[in-house]
Amino acid sequence: MTPSISLGDYEPEIIPEPWEEYQYRDLYRSYYTQSISMKINGLFHCITALTSLELNKCYTDPVERGDVSTTPRNCYLSALTIYIDNKGRIIKGEKVNTTFRLKYVNGEHILDSSTKIQKELERCVDKNELHNLVIKNKQITFRNGKIYLLEKFHEYIKQASICNRRTYVNYTYLKVSENRDDLNNKLSLLGITTAAVGFVPGKASVIADYSIKILGFALSAEPRFSLAEYTFPVNGPVYLDEQTLYQHYKRDNTNGYVSPQRSEGKPMNKVRDILKELQECGLTIT
C-alpha cells in the first residue's frame, strides 16, 4: 500500500503515516486468504476474506540500525481485509491498525509489556462504490478520506472476484482442495485460464495454529483479543505467497534538511513468516 491521500479543494494532499516520521524503518508484507461465515440480512454466507498484512518496524535511535540496534523499536501492524461474496462482489473492506513496542533484552527484541497495545479501526466506503474503486481503479477509499493505491494485492482480489463469480468453488477452497487435477479440468471446461483465478498445481500451505491466533489478533479491532471469542474460518487461512516482501526505508539528513522516507536498495522477497516473527517477539495469544 502506498501513502494515503486526502483530496482537498485543489490538489491531493499527502497525509504521512506515523511510521514515515522515523529515520529508519523495515517493512514486511504478506498476503492471506480464508473462507469465513458472515451473517448478511439475517442469513449466514460463506465469504472470502483476503488480507494484506504489513509490519513496519521503526528504529527509535537514528544512529543505530539493522540487527545491531539495541534501542526500542516502535512497531505498526496493519491488516487490510477485503471481503468478497460468492458472486464475486466486494461487500466490505476495513483496516485494523495495531501499535506496540519492542524492547531489547538479552540480545533480542521482545514485546514491551509495560507499553499498552493500541488498536484503531478504519472502515472503507460502502460496498457498491468500494467494488468499482478496487476492481477498476486499483484503490481503496476509507470513510475518513484516506485513499490507498493497490499493487500486488489487487491481483489477488481480482483473482478471487473472478473465481467466486465464474466457478462453483470459493477462492480459498480453490487454494486448499486436495483434488487439483479435477479442479484443473473443470476450469478448462468453463473456459477459465488457471492464471485468471490464481490456480496452481500444488495446494497452498495452511498456516500453523499459532499463526492463526496471531492473524486473528491482527484482524480484531478489540484491544483485548480473546481466543475464546474468535470464530475459526471455514477454510484456511492460507498463504497467497510463500515469500514475504522486505524493504528498508531511510530519511537523509543533510545540513539540517531531512528528506521524506525513501526506499533503500531493491525490495527483497524472503521465505519469512510475519506471523511467526510476531510470536517470537512475544506477541502470544491465549
Walk me through what this model shows.
This protein is an alpha+beta fold. The chain is 22% helix and 39% strand. The chain is built from seven helices and 15 strands. Strands 3, 4, 5, 6, 7, 8, 11, 12 and 15 form a nine-stranded antiparallel beta sheet that branches. A two-stranded antiparallel sheet has the order 1-2. A hairpin with a 5-residue loop joins strand 5 (73-84) and strand 6 (90-105). Helix 6 (209-219) crosses helix 7 (274-280). It is globular, with a radius of gyration of 20 Å. It starts with a strand and ends in a 6-residue tail after the last helix. The model is unreliable at 5-13 (pLDDT under 50).
List keywords for this structure.
22% helix; 286 residues; alpha+beta; nine-stranded antiparallel beta sheet; two-stranded antiparallel ribbon
Number of helices: 7
Largest sheet composition:
9 strands, antiparallel
**How would you describe the shape?**
globular
The number of strands is 15
The share of residues in helices is 10-25%
The radius of gyration is: 20 Å
Mean pLDDT: 82
Q: Secondary-structure element sequence?
A: EEEEEEEEHEEHHHHHEEEEEH
Cα separation of the termini:
31 Å
Share of residues in strands: 35-45%
Contiguous runs where pLDDT drops below 50 for at least 5 residues: 5-13
